[in-house]
Structures are given as C-alpha cells and as structure tokens.
Design goal:
By secondary structure, this protein is an alpha+beta fold. About 30% of the residues lie in helices and about 20% in strands. It is built from five helices and nine strands. Bound molecules: 2-acetamido-2-deoxy-beta-D-glucopyranose. 2-acetamido-2-deoxy-beta-D-glucopyranose binds next to loops. Keywords: Membrane, Signal, Transmembrane, Transmembrane helix.
C-alpha cells in the first residue's frame, strides 16, 4: 500500500525536473555567442602609398593619403620652414634635329611649391624656364643650337625659399664636374647630320679647288710666265 503513494511522489518530483532540464540546453548555445563580438582594430597602415617621386604628374603623397580608401605610408619630408633640398636631375633626352631636349627629374624629400629649369649656354647667359607646379617631373628645353654645350639645373621652391645650385660648375677644368644625383648636368647637342654633310661638302670643295688651282698653276701659268730658272737655261 505504501508503494503507490511513494511511486506517485517520486513521479511528481521527477517529472517537473525533466521539462526543467530542457531549457538548459539552449542556454549553453547562448553562452557560446558571447565570445564572438571581438574588438576589431583597423590594421596598421604599413603599406607605402602609390607615390613615385620621379613620376611625371605625380600628386603629392599627402593628397594620396587623404584621398585613398585605405591608410598608406608616405616618405618623410624636411620641414616646410626650410627651403627644399635640390631635386635630382634624371635623364636628359636630346632631340638634336629639332633643337630641343626633354629633361626629367625626381622630387626631393621636401615640401615643394613649384619647379623651374635654369639653362646656361656656352657664353654663360642664363635663361629661366616657366614655373611648373609640384606635380611636374619633366620639362622641355627649346631653341638649342646644334653643336652647342649647355648646363641645365632643376630648381625647386616652397614658401621658405629656393633649393641650392651647386657652386662647383663654371668655366675651365676645375668646374667640369657636377656631383652625381645633383640638380645640374651638362648637355651637349650633337651637330645636325645635315651640318656634318655640309661641312664634308665644304671641305671637299675646298680641297678640290686647291688641287685645281695647283694643277692650273702647274700646267698653264708656270709655262706662260715660266720659272725663274728655266728661261735662263733656255737662253744659254
Ligand atoms: C599642375 O599642372 C597640370 C598641367 O598644367 C594641371 O593639369 C594640374 O591640375 C596642376 N596641378 C595643380 C595641383 O595645380
């Protein structure tokens, strides 16, 4: 008789426990989700910007940093309170037939407002080219004379002043060289091919004329006027 109330009591105690145990299972999944929201820091900007200091029409690196979708690194620059370092003269391509040359350069590691070219001809006369904005890395020299020798320098300026020109250049062997990777260089325009042909024709003509006159003198004039000795010999 005691067995059935006891069994009922047991059932009453255990049954509510069974449904109570089920809600525990979803709670376990909830706990796992708590690990997911991790603090996501942006990656460090260790990619260099797509900036080439020798590329023509290159936007300043700081503009690339401002405009770009991702952060990038720029090369360090000298203080804007100081005049810029000299640019580096690059390739100078001479088109002798047209009397012009295309001058390339690389930006210094300094803030630059604008560039210009300086050109000295053989007589030491200086010409200043037009001001070019900071995106320029290439300019053209015109009116170069065939066979002419020139010195060209790239100049840069900002609010604080102008870049330096190396003082080493000048007439004579002492000033014959420029430091490598500097802003200046010598450029010698080869004579036009036509000029060479003209010169060759000129020299040939002169030689031919000389030969002719020598022959004419030998065969005609000398016989007419005679040598000082022969007529004397004939008389005797
Ligand atoms: C620089 O000059 C070029 C050519 O004249 C021009 O296209 C460019 O917009 C100028 N850039 C700036 C920043 O003034």
């Amino acid at each position: 008789m005691l067995g059935s109330p006891c069994l009922l009591w047991l059932l009453a105690v255990t049954f509510p426990l069974v449904p109570r145990a089920q809600p525990l299972a979803p709670k376990d999944f909830e706990e796992e989700e708590e690990d997911e929201p991790e603090t996501a820091w942006p990656p460090l900007p260790d990619v260099p910007c797509d900036y080439d200091r020798c590329r023509h029409l290159q936007a300043p690196c700081q503009e690339l940093q401002r405009a770009g979708p991702a952060a990038c690194l720029c090369p360090g620059l000298s203080s804007p309170a100081q005049p810029p370092d000299p640019p580096r003269l690059g390739e100078v391509r001479i088109v002798a037939e047209e009397g012009r040359a295309v001058v390339h350069w690389c930006a210094p590691f300094s803030p630059v407002r604008h560039y210009w070219l300086l050109l000295w001809d053989g007589s030491g006369t200086r010409q200043k080219g037009p001001l070019l904005n900071a995106t320029f890395r290439r300019a053209e020299l015109k009116g170069l004379k065939p066979g002419g020798a020139y010195v060209v320098c790239v100049m840069a300026a900002n609010e604080a002043g102008e870049s330096r020109v190396p003082p080493a250049w000048g007439e004579g062997p002492a000033g014959a060289g420029f430091p490598a990777f500097g802003p200046c260089g010598r450029l010698t325009v080869p004579p036009r091919p036509q000029t060479l042909v003209h010169a060759a024709v000129g020299v040939s003509t002169a030689l031919a004329l000389l030969s002719c006159s020598a022959l004419i003198w030998h065969f005609c004039l000398r016989d007419r006027w005679g040598c000082p000795r022969r007529p004397a010999a004939g008389v005797l």
